[in-house]
Amino acid sequence: MKFEVFSELEYIVNDPTTFIFNIQVSRAKSQTILEENLTIEPYFALEEFVSAIGDPRFLRVQIPEPTTFTISYTATVDTNYHIIDQEKLLKPVPVVRLDADIIPYLFPSRYCQSDKFEKLAWREFGAIENDFAKVSAINEWIYNHVEYLGGMTNSSTSAHDTLIERHGICRDFAHLGITLCRALSIPARYFTGYAYLLDPPDFHACFEAYIGGEWMFFDPTKLVPVNGLVKIANGRDAADAAIASIFGNAFCSKISVGCMSVDLDFRLHYIEDTQKQSGISYQ
Hints:
- By secondary structure, the chain is of the alpha+beta class.
- It has helices at 86-89, 118-125, 131-145, 159-165, 170-183, 268-274; strands spanning 2-13, 17-21, 31-41, 46-50, 57-63, 67-79, 82-84, 147-148, 167-168, 188-195, 203-211, 214-218, 229-235, 244-247, 250-261, 279-281.
- The longest helix has 15 residues, at 131-145.
- The chain is globular, with a radius of gyration of 19 Å.
């Protein structure tokens, strides 16, 4: 399925500042970038590099003096997620057999203090028969027990905060899902992307759990169709995959994000029904 995505961010810079942006679409196997364009006005030199953790296509730019600038990105992307049969999802991969690149997603991280969640996770989900059912139950639990509420959390809000306060935005829902998975020894990681039908339009955060040798996608907010995502990046949590990191004195004054389908036969309901019997992988 093909999507057109765009983002535009405006910043007011008060002193020399370095920015690291993460707004470009991932070059993952699950999606093909057909066309993309990046501009910055006024012009400043941009350096692209790839993180050693996850797959963000970071952009670094140094703004040497006070100014206002805008960075804009557009892309046309053909996505190619695949559906995993539930028979495969019933076969767990024990920690002793996990590949080295999966191991970091078992550990506590800045926003996902899984070592503090073990009693809760095992009490609520430990008796569930298999890992896919466990993570599906975690997804439902978050949806039913945490209120989606904007403006009440910030960039320092952790999964522990979300559990106590019982409200948050997609970023907070994703962190809570990751944390509960890791507390059950299920590798989990952060997923950020452009989302079709998200209202109001914005970047969207979800999570993936490693089940049966596959990274499986989950969205506890249930705000977008599961086949309506274009991946930007993965990471241990939002610290690894932040849309923008600012090192200096500056602030965002405007943000605009969009994701539009260019397929006339976009079958959203089919995928939503399929999720009941199997899982989706964006690998």
